[in-house]
Specification:
455 residues, alpha/beta, 2 domains, 15 helices, 21 strands
Length: 455
């Protein structure tokens, strides 16, 4: 027994696990060539009936090249079907320009027809979509869970032991341990990414950024040239979303205003990353995988959803308090070019050219008040109710001056559908969108990009 393996066995026994040697072929399936030793483990339950699993210790070759000196706990034995992984460099949060990327996921799953078991490495770029698609298409999976950085402290070990004790039954799950011996170098790609390349028989790469983690791992695996392994580089590029199920819309000549007829507060819409409020996440994923127009989540789609619902939903994220609020700005629409900003940390634009302007007095009657701007010391001295309307003057790094937004907030949801239409103006970026707003909702429209002339 190697010193690393002996250390690992002793650590597990000290944690209260009962180990007995097992046959690698009994449990490891297609992983067997990568496994040097296997142990059968019994995990007691409160019911008195033990649950069994398997502890795998990788070969020296696999440890040196990919995994480091780690254990893996396997919840259920594997069959002999090939393990196929799907990997991709990070793609951002907006899937709408990436129809080809989504299409390849769906087509790859259809190609399997139950012949493969899909290796789903949690918290990687493809994991959410691969796991959902497998569930919908009846494909088998092996879910892999690992610390991204393979930390080896006591807290990491405790989390791994807790994960073993609470691991689900059913489809097999592989829980990779912290590193037993000295940690690996800090410049290696994340552990969970390395597992996809190390454990799979087949590898499908949707996209890889030159010099990125996926690209480095791709080249390392390609250089190994192990018999029986294959990898396919699909090199997805941006491609437009098809409009195969786009519903017909009513169009009408819009009533365009050149300037707002009253002092206003404006609510600007932005891209929504994920389901709409109240939308089931599984349904949203279905829509994305089918490339449905209903999956669109850009600022224009957000505005249409808001108009159809007749309200602006309040939220509490990024606020100092739990009460949902709607954010407004008193900045005039004509200042849009100066307000438009890309927020690098949030991967999105602020002040995209879509939203709703409401007569200020109508919003005030619903409880809207101006935000006060201050420092952390001001927040510490404020009451919980006062904090609801508070905002830091500058971002924590000092790069953003929040006072320029001249923000107001109103409590809860704002139901603009209850107001007379003369108190509401919808702003959009082009005349075609204005025709749709007029035809479907009847509101007056302001064209943000042109600062349009009244007609």
């Amino acid at each position: 027994m190697s010193r690393g393996l002996e250390t690992a066995v002793n650590r597990l026994r000290q944690a209260g696990f009962e180990l007995r040697p097992g046959e690698v072929q009994e449990c490891a399936g297609r992983l067997a060539p990568l496994v040097a030793a296997a142990y059968r483990i019994a995990i007691p339950r409160s019911t008195g009936v033990a649950r069994h699993g398997y502890l795998l210790w990788w070969t020296a070759l696999v440890q040196d090249a990919w995994t480091g000196a780690t254990w893996a706990y396997l919840t259920a034995p594997l069959d002999d079907r090939p393990l196929v992984a799907m990997v991709s460099s990070r793609m951002g949060r907006d899937y709408f320009p990436r129809a080809g990327w989504i299409t390849y996921i769906r087509q790859s799953l259809a190609l399997s027809r139950g012949r493969w078991r899909w290796l789903v490495c949690e918290n990687t770029t493809t994991a959410e979509w691969l796991r959902h698609g497998c569930g919908r298409m009846g494909e088998s999976t092996l879910v892999v869970r690992a610390d991204r950085r393979a930390r080896s402290g006591e807290q990491s070990w405790r989390r791994w032991f807790e994960g073993i004790a609470s691991a689900p039954s059913g489809e097999p799950v592989l829980l990779v341990s912290p590193v037993v011996e000295s940690p690996q170098a800090t410049d290696v790609p994340p552990q969970i990414d390395r597992m996809a390349f190390a454990l799979s028989d087949g590898l499908i790469c949707l996209s890889r950024r030159p010099g990125g983690n996926v690209d480095r791992l791709w080249r390392q695996r390609h250089a190994e040239r192990i018999a029986g392994r294959w990898q396919l580089d699909l090199a997805c590029t941006e491609s437009p979303w098809p409009e195969w199920d786009l519903a017909a819309v009513r169009l009408r000549k819009p009533r365009i205003v050149g300037r707002l007829p009253w002092p206003a507060l404006c609510h600007w819409t932005r891209r929504c990353d994920g389901p709409w409020p109240g939308e089931e996440k599984r349904l949203w994923r279905d829509r994305v995988l089918l490339l449905s127009a209903a999956a669109r989540r850009d600022a224009w789609a957000t505005l249409l959803a808001m108009l159809r619902e007749g309200r602006i939903r309040g939220g509490s994220r990024s606020l100092r308090g739990s009460r949902p609020m709607v954010s407004w700005t008193a900045q005039p629409l004509e200042r849009w070019p100066a307000l438009r900003t890309f927020r690098r940390g949030q991967h999105r634009w602020d002040f995209e050219p879509y939203g709703i302007a409401v007569e200020r007095e109508a919003v005030r009657r619903e409880g809207a008040r101006p935000v006060w701007y201050g420092s952390e010391a001001d927040f510490a001295a404020a009451t919980p109710r006062q904090r609801q309307l508070g905002q830091l003057r500058r971002s924590r790094r000092g790069t953003v001056d929040w006072t320029r937004e001249r923000e107001w907030r109103s409590p809860g949801d704002f139901r603009f559908s209850r107001l007379p239409q003369r108190s509401v103006v919808v702003f959009v970026s082009d005349y075609g969108e204005a025709r749709q707003v007029a035809g479907e909702f009847g509101y007056r429209v302001y064209l943000v990009r042109q600062g349009s002339e009244a007609t």
